[in-house]
Design a protein that fits this description.
Strands 7-6-5-4-3-2-1-8 form an eight-stranded parallel sheet. It has one domain: Alpha-Beta Barrel (TIM Barrel), CATH 3.20.20. It is of the alpha/beta class. The two termini are 32 Å apart. Strand 3, helix 4 and strand 4 form a beta-alpha-beta unit. The radius of gyration is 19 Å and the shape is globular. Bound molecules: (6S)-5,6,7,8-tetrahydrofolate. The site of (6S)-5,6,7,8-tetrahydrofolate (THG) has 19 residues, from strand 1, strand 4 and strand 5.
Length: 286
């Protein structure tokens, strides 16, 4: 499983401030911390960056590369900023992302072809988020065909079926995992897959509960065969689950060896994510 560290994010107060002041230090520290905790890639999320996009992306990529050799996942919707970042990356980066919207396909997909790098494809259209598994299947086929027409091979595509917040729509989490299970037989040769895992816990009003929801989501993504995820590697309890599953080779085997309190919490969380039990903030107490 390829882990993409999520923490360099303009939405975070500390990083937002560091970006505005062009202060490298907090960003470099976060890069090193995530590397130490086991990140394989670092997501660099500067948002839409309407003002100074190219200059900002170039600055932040160079700041990170001064201290850290990990490949970067350049996370912006600004195509000029994406190009500027791609031009200065030393390790082959990940373009995060194109969607299935014509505007994005025509501007961002050619960048992945030109720079010969991997690209995340969000299953998102002008009509918004996909409603069910059928819509995700249809979008995945369309975007793969479009990429192939630019000579981008399937191995370079990381399909992101969009992880929803469980408090917004539990059924969407189910069709998300159903799609991941279908993906290997849907497209050949196979593409890769990824998601913003922590999206699942957005809106949960407690940090510990958020972390538990993220751990449960990791379990269902792993079981569905996802090949990577954008995650909070700085959450030690989360990483304990990631490493435990890796060591045991499956979620079920991990649940057999983990202590009983953690096992019960994970199992209750997985039941919510499978929509077998209705979500409420006190899901662990029921
Ligand atoms: N798919 C792809 N890229 C993505 C997403 C996706 N990039 C952005 C996002 N979604 C994934 N990254 C994050 C980063 C942080 C959080 C969630 C997803 C998060 N942060 C805390 C919060 O907002 O409460 C803490 C922020 C802070 O540090 O202050 O939840 O889906 N391809």
């Amino acid at each position: 499983m390829v882990l993409i560290g999520e923490s360099i994010n303009i939405i975070s107060r500390k990083i937002g401030e560091a970006i505005r002041n062009r202060n490298k230090k907090p960003i470099q520290e976060l890069a090193l911390q995530q590397e130490e905790k086991g990140a394989d890639y670092l997501d660099v999320n500067i948002g839409p960056a309407r003002k100074d996009g190219p200059e900002l992306m170039e600055w932040i990529v160079e700041a990170i590369q001064e201290v850290c050799k990990l490949p970067l996942s350049l996370d912006t919707t600004n195509p000029e900023a994406m190009r500027a970042g791609l031009s200065v990356c030393k390790e082959s980066p990940l373009v995060n992302s194109t969607s299935c919207q014509e505007e994005r396909l025509s501007k961002v997909l050619p960048l992945a072809a030109e720079f010969d790098c991997d690209i995340i494809c969000l299953l998102l259209t002008d009509q918004g988020l996909p409603r069910d598994v059928e819509e995700r299947v249809s979008l995945a086929l369309q975007i793969t065909e479009r990429a192939n027409s630019l000579d981008i091979p399937n191995e370079r595509l990381w399909i992101d079926p969009l992880m929803f917040a469980v408090i917004v729509d539990q059924k969407q989490v189910v069709s998300f995992t159903e799609f991941l299970e279908l993906l290997p037989s849907l497209i050949l040769p196979p593409t890769k897959s990824t998601c913003g895992l922590s999206n699942v816990s957005q809106g949960i009003p407690d940090e510990e509960l958020r972390s538990i929801m993220n751990r449960g989501a990791y379990c269902i993504c792993y079981q569905a065969g996802i090949s990577s995820a954008i995650v909070n590697v700085l959450d030690d309890s989360f990483m304990e689950v990631v490493c435990g599953i890796e060591k045991q080779g499956s979620v079920d085997k991990y649940l057999e060896v983990v202590d009983s309190d953690k096992k019960v919490k994970l199992e209750k969380t997985i039941r919510v994510l499978r929509n077998e039990v209705l979500y409420c903030h006190s899901w662990l107490e029921i």
